[in-house]
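@channel sequence for tomorrow's demo:
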Amino acid sequence: MANFAFTYSAPDANGIVTVTVTRTGGRGKEPVTIATSGTATNGADYSISPTTLSFGTNSNVLTFTLDMSADGITESPETVTFSLTGAKGTPTYSTNTFTITDAIECFMPGTMILTPSGEVAVETLKIGDLVMTHDGRSEPVRWMGRHTVSTVFADKLKTLPVRIKAGALDDNVPSRDLLVSPGHAILVDGALVQAAALINGSSIIQETDVPQVFTYHHVELADHSLIVAENTPAETFVDNVERARFDNAAEYAELYPDAAPIAEMDLPLAMSQRQVATATRRRLGQRGVALYGKALAIAG
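structure tokens (generated this afternoon):
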């Protein structure tokens, strides 16, 4: 989950109130903008910038939206509407915090994770087991999260796994097909790229042949790291989502009641196709066609 707080200043001499959006949780690098929806007239009733809204009007109700499509992925559930009510000079406002669904980073069962003693299936890992990081460290698993998905009720584009086929990213990378959640970031050409942003219709596709109910598995270390999944550097879990979404959230709360937040790796982050470097898109597209033939229609 990502949390955003809306705070309102006191009216100035002209009755103008400034609304500011502040991220209080979730991926700090995820962009956000305020957009309008309704009949307010820009310049007369309000002025707007990417994260602030100035409001001074005689109208009783104006509606604005927090537009998550700024990340390049338009998803209607990620639009929050809020209202400002009152009259110019004597407005009445409230401060609210809204929660918006963010992507989660997780592996499908059967994904092989590199450990000091060889590869093991992700679902067999336990707290305390050692895994190898992309930079050669051997680190203990801090927590294994489980997240059960029902495809009957889920938004399929945001939920169904992305299949990164063998060799899609480089020679023997992945070594076998890698299936991860759409929001799971992979290290590609020096950037963390969410799997959904890599879809090219040939070597990287959104998988539809999944059980009606399945469970994703999350690997958490003491820090936000890259572990090796099917010979591919893939991020570990970072606590920018609400842990209550996990099947075993109570276990984490009992184990780590005073846990500090996990800092994200300081790497460029691409969350949509247009944020992926042109050279990377071209390189992966050419590999995909060479390995798997003509690209199909891109999912999503």
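heads up for whoever presents: The longest strand covers residues 17-25.
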